[in-house]
Write a structure and sequence with these properties.
Layout lengths: L2 E2 L9 E5 L2 E2 L1 E2 L5 E5 L7 E5 L2 E7 L2 E3 L4 E7 L3 E2 L3 E4 L4 E5 L12 E3 L1
Parallel strand pairs: 4-11
Antiparallel strand pairs: 1-2, 2-5, 3-12, 5-8, 6-7, 6-9, 9-10, 9-11, 12-13
Length: 109
């Protein structure tokens, strides 16, 4: 499933990551999906704070490591998602965690 990386319930732009683990790993074929209230096809993508793709689709298959955000008309810019190019990484679910939650960690190499 997809997992939002921003608080639920607010009318904001959300950036979903597939597969739903963080940090996202470049070699796992990461797809980012921008969810907002704007017009389809009007998504603007940013990588490392710089304009990456103007007026693009709402999904992006990541081919480079970096920190990504997206922007949709009406709801603004999403929280950032970092995609790493690491060799040994401790992963945790991308959903929000609360004290006392049972959580599965993954070590990927």
């Amino acid at each position: 499933g997809w997992c939002p990386l921003s608080p639920t319930g607010a009318q904001t732009t959300k950036l979903l990551v597939v597969p739903p683990w963080k940090p996202a790993l470049l070699w796992e074929r990461v797809t980012l999906i921008c969810q907002g209230w704007g017009t389809t096809g009007a998504t603007t993508w940013y990588k490392d704070g710089q304009n990456w793709r103007q007026q693009g689709q709402n999904h992006l298959i990541v081919t480079e490591g970096g920190t990504y955000t997206c922007d949709t008309p009406g709801t603004g810019r999403s929280p950032p998602v970092t995609v790493l190019h690491g060799w040994l990484v401790l992963l945790l679910p991308a959903r929000a965690l609360l004290e006392g939650d049972t959580v599965t960690l993954r070590c990927r190499s």
